[in-house]
Amino acid sequence: MKFKKLLYTVLLSAGCLTASAQAPETVTIDAFNPHWFVQAQAGAQYTLGEICFGDLISPNVQVAGGYQFTPVWGLRLAVNAWQSKGGVTLLETGNTYKWKWNYVAPSVDVTCDLVNLIAGYKADRVFNCGVLAGVGANIFFSNGEAIDANAQIGKGLFLKNLWDGTVPRFMGRFGAYADFRISRRVSLGLEVNANTTSDLYNSKDASNLDWYFNALAGVKVRLGQPTKKVEKKRCCHEKVVEKVVEKIVEKPVEKIVYRDREVVKREPLRKDIFFTISNTNVSRAELPKVEDIAAYLNKYPESKVVITGYADKGTGNTKINEKLAKKRSEIVADLLTSKFGIASSRITIDSKGDTVQPFEQNDLNRVSICIAE
Questions:
Q1: Within this chain, domains 2-27+235-372 and 30-227 share the same CATH topology
Q2: What is the pLDDT of residues 37-53, one digit of tens each?
Q3: CA 322, CA 319: separation in Å to the nearest integer?
Q4: Which residue, of 24, 83, 242, 280, is most buried by count of CB atoms within 10 Å of its CB?
Q5: Long-range pairs for 251-254 at CB < 8 Å and ≥24 separation?
Q6: pTM of the predicted model, to two decimals?
Q7: Strand pairing category for 269-274 and 262-265
Q8: In DSSP terms, which residues pair with 113 in a beta bridge?
Q9: Measuring CA to CA, which residue among 237, 99, 238, 74 is closest to residue 159?
Q10: pLDDT in tens, 252-288
Q11: CATH superfamily of 2-27+235-372
């Protein structure tokens, strides 16, 4: 008996060393791929002035197209347009004069994704935010209302920077944005930006640059292939653990004989059935593990299995992950009963959602851990 135990220990150690020496297993993940995008937004503008805030609000639209070079850095050509407003209240009379005009402002903007910069890229991340800065031209026109307001005063010096026709001027911009991902290609977004241009813009002489501020909401569509499939090596120590467990399962059955009956002592079987992101179907590659569980239960009629479902914490939210984890345990149980004829009374289902993460690597926590004994 001592010789058998010594021999088994040597064989088990050799199996562990062999597993450690094997090349790490690779898993397929979604990685960033440079891509083009288009964007359409609408909202409101506030043109800085001295009259009531509400009197200086006007409609605003913006369309853009660009290229995302890295998860952090992008470049876009944006065209912002529609209407700006101005006004003044005369101290002598207390009368308020208001006017509006139209403009088109193309600009080239650099974007920086702060979430990807700080936390790293994740293809399935729901929320991203960042900052932007750019330069361009502001082309303003249709200033008839300002000309009429100036004529009503009759002094000729009311609007010292009064202009007519079409006037192009330099424009600078900076701002911030937030994107809410609803699919692989489509995001809903919010953007606020501040824009500065010539003192000529609102027809008044303030001896400084004029400013207007935009608040926009819209949709962003990624073109081409925003992600690509790449293979990533799974940590070696996880492979060793899996091999050691399976080696122990293969240990010869030891029989213990009592006076009135013979009892078979069996080792438990563990199988980790992995799932892809947001998925609850057992893949063809993982199905043999379910077959192994069924074979074990058939071999040992008194054995039972506990199936515990999990979801990775890096994806979705707690409520969604609770449903995913429960479904992942139920689908394995359904396969055992419907495909392999295992009685449901021998199966216990449990789920941990994303409250427990059995693996260090986030993607491996999309799993059902099955322990039969």
A1: no
A2: 999 999 999 999 889 99
A3: 5
A4: 280
A5: 251/8, 251/12
A6: 0.58
A7: unpaired
A8: 130
A9: 99
A10: 555 554 445 555 567 899 999 999 998 999 999 999 9
A11: OmpA-like domain (3.30.1330.60)
